[in-house]
User: What shape does this take?
Amino acid sequence: MKLNKIEHIGIAVKDIDVAIKYYQKVLGLECYNIEEVKDQKVRTAFFMVGETKIELLESLEPDGPIGKFIEKKGEGVHHIAFAVDNVMDSLKEAEEKGVQLIDKAPRKGAENMNIAFLHPKSTFGVLTEFCEASE
Ligand code: ZN
Assistant: This one.
């Protein structure tokens, strides 16, 4: 297993426009991309901080994964995403080492990344994402 960097931190918010204002006006970051990921029922907004991104996540529907997360836990850190060279290989290795997977194979996330999640039951409560750039 080799994690190259923290690619992004995903943060669940109720109202992405209000949250974007905070990140821009208070923290001085620039939102460079807003994108909907339909199969995840989310709108995302991205900011660069050094080599790492902040990914804001707003649910498009109350029954989406982010909607349910906010209902249970409130707004806040939702997941940490590590950049890896090959998501499939990293998933296999994690599974071999006893980690429960949410995704058995990579799928498409925002920014055209291949992504997959490990189950927080196996990762001390941290929803963990592997991601790799796809061309
Ligand atoms: Zn993510």
Remarks:
- The pocket of zinc ion is lined by residues 8, 10, 55, 79, 81, 129 (CB under 6 Å).
